[in-house]
Specification:
single chain, 462 residues, Rossmann fold, 3 domains, 5-stranded parallel sheet, 19 strands
Length: 462
């Protein structure tokens, strides 16, 4: 497709769009707003795809949340029309790489990769509407009187004292129940061992090493301590109590170890998957957007913890392999959010697939800490506008419009890699870091097709 004719509107491209979910709806609206003719196939059979690809067309878009379905459809379209440009949504990097190897002219777009920067920007700093990874490092998209511009930013790198304090806080106040049982048992056992050692050294006159050996032998019931047999009665009573307390501590340690061995461990006491306590971002919802947002924030040096209510979510294992601490629970729970230290958090991002649930989560979080910076994922543009104007719940992002617009731009030949929304205008960022407007809010009003020429026109408002 000629870039000049596309921009001046002298040609109206014809594209085939395959997909039936909300992302496909947003992509179709963006294409029609850009004056493209669109043939929409929602759940087509192979024969319907074969018929749709006959004749002249300028491109094919495949929009699906199922990577394997996208791969199958892409390979089928490639076998029918190998010369036609193809744009496909795929989330997994392995599937995407396989498709890129087999189809030379395909453009692979991940909804998570497109949307995550627009959520990460406000989480990082309230000045930024988005972030971007450039050849020179990370940059934030800052909006001023002259329009949005890229500002270099340096990833936050905690120093050694901060890391040690975070590790100490995680050791003293672990998040998971099994970790708390294990930690309390260990602390109790060593406390009893220390007290018993000091008591034997002072009362019985033993050397410190001999007292430690005797105390350990008695507490672990390895053997008796003859020195205690001739001790005063009160010391025998003290030694009895210490052994009983040590026995309970050992039982707690054993229970904690067994529970952590049997359960799926999504957080750790120390290491990369320990739950952060300060200057962190709480990401509620571990779908495509939430997963990519967690990884992007971590690349920016921001501690992150993910929260998801579905224990069978496939991304839980991905988060574990990437070292992202994850918690199973309801995002709107005041008890659970309180344990995540919202009062010291940098921001909370509610990015589940349910817009109403995201509103509920943000309302609960703001009810606990009204100055908390919040970012939430809304549905279609009208819902996002109502949420922003009626509730004032912080930064609202229409994920489907962002991803759908970039898909449309890619299919129309734009050299765009990122998209963001600012003051009802959608902007694209090109591969050479240029920012250019793509659509305004009014461009996405309902359209109908002109039967004669296929030219979209706005439906009159009543």
């Amino acid at each position: 497709m000629d870039d000049r004719s596309r921009r001046d509107g002298s040609a109206r491209p014809f594209l085939v769009l395959i997909g039936e979910a909300e992302l496909a709806d947003a992509t179709e609206r963006s294409l029609r707003a850009a004056r493209a003719r669109v043939l929409r196939l929602r759940a087509p059979r192979d024969t319907e795809i074969r018929e749709a690809l006959e004749g002249e067309l300028d491109g094919v878009l495949i929009v699906s949340t199922d990577d394997h379905l996208s791969l199958r459809l892409a390979l089928f379209v490639e076998s029918l029309r190998p010369e036609v440009p193809l744009t496909v949504t795929i989330f997994g990097s392995i599937v995407a790489s396989q498709l890129l190897r087999r189809v030379p002219h395909v453009r692979v777009v991940s909804m998570g990769d497109v949307v995550a920067p627009s959520f990460a920007g406000p989480c990082l700093d309230e000045r930024f509407v988005s972030v971007r990874s450039t050849a020179r490092g990370f940059a934030g998209v800052e909006a001023d009187a002259d329009g949005p511009r890229l500002v270099p930013i340096d990833p936050a790198v905690p120093n050694r004292p901060q890391r040690l304090l975070s590790m100490l806080a995680s050791l003293l106040r672990p998040f998971e129940h099994s970790a708390r049982v294990l930690t309390f048992g260990l602390v109790g056992f060593f406390a009893v061992l220390l007290v018993d050692t000091v008591a034997m050294a002072l009362v019985l006159g033993l050397a410190l090493t001999e007292a430690l050996y005797s105390a350990t032998k008695v507490i672990l019931t390895v053997g008796p301590n003859p020195a205690v047999d001739g001790a005063p009665g009160w010391f025998k009573l003290f030694s009895t109590v210490s052994m009983l307390v040590a026995l309970a501590a050992v039982a707690m340690v054993t229970a904690g170890i067994v529970e952590r061995l049997l359960d799926r461990r999504l957080t750790t006491i120390v290491g990369r998957r320990m739950v952060p306590r300060r200057d962190h971002v709480v990401v509620v919802g571990l779908g495509q957007v939430g997963m990519r947002l967690c990884l992007l924030l971590r690349d920016l040096g921001i501690p992150v913890v993910a929260l998801d209510r579905n224990a069978d979510n496939y991304n839980l294992s991905r988060a574990r392999s990437y070292g992202v601490p994850t918690i199973i629970g309801v995002g709107g729970s005041r008890f659970l959010l309180g344990r995540l230290h919202l009062q010291r958090a940098r921001a909370l991002a509610a990015v589940t697939d349910d817009g109403l649930e995201n509103i509920s989560i943000v309302v609960t979080a703001l009810g606990m800490h009204e100055h908390l910076r919040t970012v939430l994922r809304a549905g279609r543009g009208d819902v996002a506008s109502e949420t922003r104007s009626l509730f004032g719940l912080g930064t609202v992002r229409d994920a489907y419009r962002l991803a759908g617009s970039l898909l449309a731009a890619a299919a129309l030949g734009y050299d765009a890699t990122d998209a963001f929304l600012h003051e009802q205008m959608l902007y694209l960022i090109t591969s050479d870091d240029r920012i250019e407007p793509f659509q305004s809010e009014s461009d996405l009003e309902p359209h109908v097709l002109d039967v004669d020429g296929g030219v979209p026109r706005r439906t009159p408002k009543t």
